[in-house]
Each structure stands twice: as C-alpha cells, then as structure tokens.
Design a protein that fits this description.
The complex is a heterotrimer. Chain A starts with 21 loop residues before the first helix and ends with a helix. Chain A has helices at 22-31, 34-56, 89-125, 127-141, 145-156, 160-187, 190-197, 202-238, 250-256, 265-293. In chain A, helix 3 packs antiparallel against helix 4 (127-141) and helix 9 (250-256) runs antiparallel to helix 10. Chain A is mostly helical. Chain B is α/β, with parallel strands linked by helices. Helix content of chain B is 31%, strand content 23%. Chain B has a domain at 7-91 and 183-190 and 215-323: Rossmann fold. Chain C is of the alpha/beta class. Classes of the chains: A mainly alpha, B alpha/beta, C alpha/beta. The interface between B and C is large, with 44 and 45 residues.
Amino acid sequence: MFNIAVDQNKVPDVPYERSAGYWENVGRRLLRDPVAMAAGAVILFLLILAVFGQWLAPYDPYDGSIMTRLKPIGFEGHPLGTDELGRDMLSRLIVGAKLSLFMGITPVIIAFLIGSCIGIVAGYTGGWVNSVIMRTIDIFYAFPSVLLAIALSGVLGAGITNSLISLTVVFIPPIARVAESVTTQIRGRDFVEAARASGAHAWTIVRVHVLGNVLGPIFVYATSLIAVSMILASGLSFLGLGVKPPEPEWGLMLNTLRTAIYVQPWIAALPGVMIFATSIAFNMLSDGLRTAMEIKD
Amino acid sequence: MSVLSNAVEQLVSIEDLCVTFKTGKKPVRAVDGVNLGLRSGEVIALIGESGSGKSVTLRSVLKLHPPRRTEMSGRIVVDGEDVMTMSPARLADFRGSKVSMIFQEPLLALDPVYTVGDQIIEAIRRHETVDKATAKARALELFELVRIPSPERRLGAYPHEMSGGMRQRAMISLALASRPQLLLADEPTTALDATVQIQILLLLRELQRDLGLSVIFVTHDIGAAVEVADRIAVMYAGKIVEEGPVRALIREPAHPYTRALLSSVAHGGFVKGSRLQTISGSPPDLSNLPKGCSFADRCPDAIPACRAQVPEEVWVADNHRARCIRIEVAS
Amino acid sequence: MASDDQTIDLGGPAQPLLKVTNLTKHFPLGKDLLGRSSGVVRAVDGVSFDVFKGETLSVVGESGCGKSTTARLLMNLLERDKGEIIFDGAQVDSTDLRLKDFRRQAQMVFQDSYASLNPRLTIEDSIAFAPQVHGVEKRQAIERARSLLQKVGLEPRRFAERYPHELSGGQRQRVNIARALALQPRLIVLDEAVSALDKSVEAQVLNLLLDLKEEFDLTYVFISHDLNVVRFISDRVMVMYLGQVVEIGESEALFESPRHPYTQALLSSIPSLDPDDRTNKPPLSGDPPNPINPPSGCRFHTRCKMAQPACASQVPSLVEHSDGQSVACLMYEPDSAYEHSQAIEEVTS
C-alpha cells in the first residue's frame, strides 16, 4: 500500500542546506548587544575574582592588625583602606567575591532545576494535579521572600549550608509559577497536539517538544533572580543568619562595618557597591538574554 | 486616468503612489506606482493576495504607516486635499471625519473597556459640537442604520458581549459617526461566517445607495468584491495589473493573473474530478523584484519581452485598463 | 522493513472506516461559589455518521457548529462524554484496538501551519518524530522524512534541515501533510488545512492532497468553511449546526438540491460571481447562535423560514432518504407534527 522508497542511490555527501539553530541565533544576537556584553564582561571579571581571588589578593584577608584599622581609601599600601579589624579591604572584597557569588548563584541554579520540574509537571498534566501543586506552591509564594528566608534560616540555624537551603526554598515557588505558565502555553499549541496524536507518551512529548521551548524562558527568569539572591544572602549574613565571621562575604562585611559608618563611610559602603554592581550586571545580562531570545521567527 | 471621469467629480485620486518599508536589511517596495481614481458614491474593490500591496495602499490614504520606517511618494487627493502634504493637525482632523476606516477584526478596533454606545458618542462629539443627548440620539440612529436589532439595549453593550456580526456592524456605525464621505474597508468580512458575510456585504451596498457613501474595499475574495463593488482593481506585487468595471473585468478579464484568479477553486473555477489549475511558483520577493513584469515568472503567456521592462498600461476599453503587453486591444 | 509496517484492512471495502454513533461533548462553563455548574457549552450533541473507505467526507458549518470539536473527538485528542467511535470494526481504545495503534492509523493536519510545528526542531526532525515513537530507528525515520518531503513537493536538500520560520505558509502546510503521512495512516483529518493559505497556494496544496490520496489509498475527513473548496474536493458532505448534523449526503446532490433549510441558506450565502445576478436579500439574518443554550426542539427553528410551532417542541432525527441523502428536519419526516401542505409534499417525495 504505502511505498515510501528509501533511495539507496542518494549521494550521501551532497550538503543539505542548514540554517543556524535557535540557540546559535540567540548567541549571535547576544554578542552584538553592547550592554549585555559589558555586563557579561563585569560578571566574567567577578568570576575570575571568585576563582582566583586568593592568589590575586595582595594581602591575607584574615590577617589584620589593630594598628592599621579603618584606614581610609588611598592609604599607603591599602588602596581601598582597611576594615575595623585592620584587614585589607581590597583583599577582602576580592576574596569575598567567591562566597558572595556562590551564595547568589547556587540557590538559583538548584531552584531552577527543582522549580522547573514542578512547574513543567503541573503545566503539562493540567487538571486537578496542576491545581494541587500550584496552590501548594502559592502558599509559599504568598510570603515576602525576605521574611521567608529569615524565617527558614531562623528554623534551620545559621551557616552557609542552611542559608543556601532557605534561599533555594524561597526561589522555588516563583520559578515553578513561571515554569507552569510557560508550559501551559506550549501545551496548548498545535504541535503538541500533533505529538499527542502520534501516540507518544507524555514523557517523550515533554522531552522532545516541551523542554526545548520552555527551558529558555524559565532560565531567563531565573537569571533575573540571581541579583535578588545575592542581596538576600547578603541580608542573611548581615543579620547573622548566614555566613559567620571572619569569612569574607560582602553582606557580612556590610554588617561588621556598620559601626564604621561614622568613621569611614566610604569604606563601609564598599561591600554594598560590590553587591550593587554585581546585581546590575546580572540583571542587564538577563535582560539582554531575554531580548536575544525574543527572535521574531 | 480614465477618459470618462471628470476631474471635478473625482472624490479620490491616487497618483503614482509608492510606499517603501525600511525594515531589516533590504527595503521592501510594497506599493510600486499605483494610480487609482474614485468617484463620489462609487465602490471600488482592491483585490489581491497577501503581499500584493492592497492593504498598504488603503492605509496610505489615511497615512497610517509608521513615519520613521516608511517612505511614501506620490499624491493622494481626497476631496481636493492632498493627504501627503497635510499638516499633522489637519491629518488628525481629516481622519475619522472625511475618511474613516473599518477593519477585519472589530475587537482590535473597539475599545474593550467602554460600551459601544459610549465610543460612538465620543466619536460624534470629537468632530461636532453637540450635547450628549443629541449625540446619543444620533448613535441610536446609526445603530438602526446598520440594522442592529434592539438598538437601544445594544448601545449599552461592551464589544466582547456582542457576536461577530453585531460587532462588525457596530464598527461600521462607529466609522459612520462623523458622516464621512469615504469609507476604507480592510477585509471587513474575511473573518466572518458565510451567512453573516453576505449580510454585511449587502449592508455596505445599502449604505452606498442610501448615503451616497464611497468605499474602497480591500479583499482577497473576488466573490465578495462582485457583490459589493462597481469597479474592481486587481493588484499584484505592488502594482495594479488590471482595473475596470465589475462586469467587464469578470466577463472579459484581460490580464493573465486576473484570469488565473477567476479560474481558481475559490471562485468556482473547476471541473470536479480534474486537477485544479494552479499558478505555478509563488509571489515574488518584494525586496527583490524581478526586472520587467513581476508576474512574468508565473505567467503562462510570458515572452522574453515581458521581462525587459515593466509593462505600460493598456486601455482594453473605455474605462478598463491592464498592464500587459500581450493584450490585443480591439481598435 | 520498518517496525511499524502493518496496516491491515480488517473489514474489507464495505465496512465503514469510521462509524461514529451519538458523539457528545459538553464543556462546562465553570462553577459558581457553591460548586454548581453555571452552564455547559453543548459543543457536540449526539452526532452520528459514517466515513467510508477511500472517500473524502467534508464537514461544513459556521462558528459554534462543533466541527472542530468533532475533529478532535475523532482523533481522540479530546475525551468524549458519550458515544462510540468504531474504526474499521474495532472500538477505539479497547482491547480490540489500542489507542497507540489507532494513532498510527489516523492522523490530523491543523489549520495554523506555523503553530503545528515545533519551532525548535528541524523540518525532518518534526516529521521523523512520530515514526520514532512507534519504534522506527532514527536513521530510517529521517530517511522516510526526506522521502516524504520529496513526495509533497519540497526538495529535501533545501528543506530538510531548515526551521519552520524559514518556510512560507504553503510550504509549512506541505510539511504538516508529510508529517501526517509519516506513520502511513489510513485516515487523515484535515481541520481547515488550506483555509489560511493564499488562493494560488491553496490550489497547489489541494492538488497535492488529491494526488496523495490516490497514491496512498487514503480516506479524508475535510473540515472547511469554504464551500467552493468543499464542492471541489468532497465525495460526501456533512452539514452541522449548533453541535448537530442537519444534513449529510453526496456532495453534488447536496449542492444541487439542498434539502435542509439551513443548508439552503448556507449555500445561497456564497457570494455570487455574476455581476448581473447579485444577491438581494441575505438568506439568513442574525448571527449563528451560541451553543450554550440552544433552542428547544429543532435548533434551527428560531431562524428558519419554514418553521412551525411543532419545530419548537419536536426534535427532528436524521432520516435517510431513498437516494442516500439524510436530513434532520421535520418537513421531511412524514409522521412528524409538522403540517405538510400540498406543495411541500411534492418537493419531498
């Protein structure tokens, strides 16, 4: 009946016309966006600091002397001054990048993975399963993130691991909501109906058709949360619920330098400047990514 | 221009209109030298497929294209005034008063947060100084004019509460609120069901008859054009390839493209059981138009001379013209 | 030999490929605070028809008639509330015919050619997806995809590794047709498959559909609102109104002498192509009503010129006439409460 003959004589090395895939195009557009590239450069710089900080720092960040406490910016030997325990600010800021970035990025990555799973399952399944999952998520979403982070940290106790856990929990609901929303939209598209009409299992359809279309937007949303995560982590450290001294972490540094505001206000503001710059850079990169992904195809 | 038309009687005169869109890498020449005239009280239909330039031509009459990305040249004279040289203030006055427009999708043209009655009243009061009660009475009149049943009640309805046909009528009455002389219709019946479409087409004919309304009606459906128009202009790749009275164009189409359209399945041109006549190939790339006649690549009658230069207009009869060098003009 | 190479004609030519009985689908409108349902949309309400092997059955009707919902019910993309769908003698989604096997034999082409294709997959990957689901090895599936592209008139070298957004509407619809063919089905449901295309492209695609039907021995259910296209392509036509079948029969006979008043109105709504014979009065006034609260009795009685009081209370049944045409109208039911005048009896005899 059906004769879809496979042509054995086909010359295999005649090239097929290819075009750049979606992600290739996104990459290209991103590379041509000056703002996003500038932000990317800043982040790259910070990542270098994070990885190689301990070798780049001129002084030992833990090593301070009361004699040289709270020296101003431009002081001899200490270009960014010293903190309240006499430790070199430049070194502490450099080495602090590692922990601050880690606290900012890690919860978002883990929340992205978990939240996406929850949201995609809810979005694809629909019906009462969706309602149950999403209403549960909504309970957590109803809490302001700061309060939730603090409450969870309070319950779990201080420390890096615990604050990572509480931050991850804070970010799962918003990511899950975005994932569910995007998945529901894709679910209704004709090509998913066509895939169902071909008899594929739900998991196959999700893997082949849904993931490729939803992970992008979810990821963009998640990157916009990195800045929030950094600030929340800094806040937790500031409140004594996160990183413990003498670890260099920008939020913690803001806390410990609090009392120095009257003496050396510029020094006290420096960790805040770092947090601010990092947040802006991540946000701009996230915006650039979103624009690059909005290819009108 | 047409030999018969008297320059004084022409309500609309489009002369050598060219519209180029500058988006992306190459500019797109959407309209390429269009000449069209319309008398007062006349209905002309612009027919073509997507990319033919019919909607662009229509929107040019109200200068609706984004100014930064669009290059327009030529003249569009409506009741003595050239739209192309109008000041922005005059243009704002002009739109909606002398000329108004109806669209394919009423939901896009009607504001969802106001009742249709309110929108009509607002339109009336924008162009005339009347009090609210008078405006409301006129709105009621308009609803009766477009045959909306229970008009009093319907004035208080929101657009989404109305059915498709009702909304289209509401949009027409909104367009008529300021007593325009010219109505521009951009595929107003394309999205409607068959039984509703014929109602709207007949309504437009009635309005033409009762109000002396002139209409430029853009569509891809020749059937709709025949029901509503006095004259038809066929567009392809930004040019008018044939234009003439309805009877002449349908009975004796001169241009090969017109003939092909008329014999397509959508217009009943088939013998059941046989294969359809098709126009081979696809519409040309408007940013890269071929030399000579744009239809030559798909034309069954093409000869090498067709590709040499753009064909001039040939008068097939007194008011029936076509752009084709293969037409034998009966002398 | 691909692992999905088994299309067996179970019942022979006389058995209908599809036998649909009393198909019903209501969509709930939502519940009020107390959980009480605030109404249903009776999208498809007791629809019965057959689809014979090798024919093209067109389904026509206006907004709210239920033809798209019927298509999705046929494909089992929507769960039906009531009714049976029997495919070549076997009930769909039963031990006689597993859903996955049914899906191999019945495919669908949608209206929106762009939304029907995954924007992230290449053309050949989109086409090769379904065969792989049914066990065909990837390399072979890709070969089949390329071969099908050739069959639908798209040169594989130029199109196989491209993305949907690079193709025109007509080309994409050809891809969708190739995708529907990939499983070597027996039935293809085309839901307004050519409606969104330009007229010149539409003709090409219709010719393609006819060629493919002959080459692969297919059966089509063709849903459309364009009556000229329907007239060209159909063997039989089914007219739907407000979720029910009002008339069904051979295409030419239906177009030449439609029996149901709605069919008559619908057919005479086609714009005239003769400038000297323009329509003067619209055959129907008002808009197609909403399937939320359909009229009692015959659902068309509120707009029907021939309506009588009986039409509001008695529901007409789909009655088959001696010439094979079926109509659901009290005028044609001899023992209905409809008062037949002499003139009408002559027409219906």
